[in-house]
Amino acid sequence: MAKQARGRSGLARFGEPGVLILASLLDGPKHGYAITSDIEATAGIRLGPGTLYGALTKLEERGLIEALASDDRRRPYAITSAGRAAVTEQITMWDRIVQTATRRLSAT
Questions:
Q1: CA 30 – CA 49 distance, rounded (Å)
Q2: How many CB atoms lie within 10 A of CB 92?
Q3: What are the CA-CA distances from residue 26 to residues 11, 12, 79 (Å)?
Q4: Given a cut of 80, is residue 2 above it in pLDDT?
Q5: Where are the domains positioned within the chain?
Q6: pLDDT in tens, 82-100
Q7: Per-residue pLDDT tens for 14-62?
Q8: What's the CA gap between 39 and 37, in Å, rounded?
């Protein structure tokens, strides 16, 4: 498999659990199970616990999300302004790719 270059945010250029998590958090804070359920509903991808929590740790270390206080055993996470900027950058790039592919498909 080809190694994907990483942008300034540390996210891979194409599909990565971190991008899916950031996109899920755009509509508000969620705990792990809610994030997994949202990603499965919107992208059809089920993240396993190791993948999810490993990605959450990396995103938090990079300052792209923050863990919120909770009285419950479930810890909610929220996207930060840096996380919004990172996911915006990814979406913009993906949009260019989709537009190019759509144009090429129409030409054939």
A1: 15
A2: 9
A3: 16, 19, 7
A4: no
A5: 17-107
A6: 999 999 999 998 899 999 9
A7: 458 999 999 999 999 999 999 999 999 998 889 999 999 999 999 999 9
A8: 6
Residue 48 φ/ψ, nearest 5 degrees: -75, 160
Answer CATH for 17-107 from 3.30.460.10, 3.20.20.190, 1.10.10.10, 2.40.240.50: 1.10.10.10
Hey, what are 15's tokens?
């599909």
CB 34 within 8 A of CB 50: no
Question: Helix 49-61 and helix 32-43: axis angle, to 10°?
Answer: 110
> What would the two tokens of residue 91 be?
């979406």
Q: Which two tokens stand for residue 1?
A: 């498999």
Query: Is pTM, for the whole model, over 0.90?
Result: no
The sign of the torsion formed by the CA atoms of 80, 7, 18, 92 equals positive
